[in-house]
Amino acid sequence: MVVASLLATVAFQASISPPGGVWQDDYLMDSDGKPVEKPHNVGKAVMAYFIGDGYEQFMVYNTIAFLASLSIILLLVSGLPIKRRRWMWIQMVTMWIAITAPTPIGRMMNFDKEMIIQIEA
């Protein structure tokens, strides 16, 4: 249950403050008052702005990990008999899903150096 709680905490935190953070300002017009080529709005994830498909995958895997962790916690708290093999198998599979779902996220986080330079500029 401790591991499931930690996984749920990490998944929740990752969705609240996504990788790269969120935009702190609106950038819709340049200093001359002309619309910019690539505008962004306050509160939108920076990763979603630069890597839209990667951000969608991140959120899908993160949501799977979060829901699987919550499922394990609810199964354990509900008081289901642990002696039943089916329930134990369901809990094991759900825990495997919760642990392995964020794995593709780590591979996605290898930003190109050019992307990091663009974000900093």
TrEMBL record:
Superkingdom of the source species: Eukaryota
Record has Transmembrane helix as a keyword: yes
Topology of the protein relative to the lipid bilayer: Multi-pass membrane protein
Any one GO cellular component localisation term in the record: plasma membrane
Positions of the PGG domain: 1-101
Transmembrane segments: 58-80, 87-105
InterPro entries named among the record's database cross-references: PGG_dom
Keywords: ANK repeat, Membrane, Repeat, Transmembrane, Transmembrane helix
Primary location recorded for the protein, binned into one broad class: membrane
Subcellular compartments: Membrane
Protein name: PGG domain-containing protein
Organism this protein belongs to: Castanea mollissima
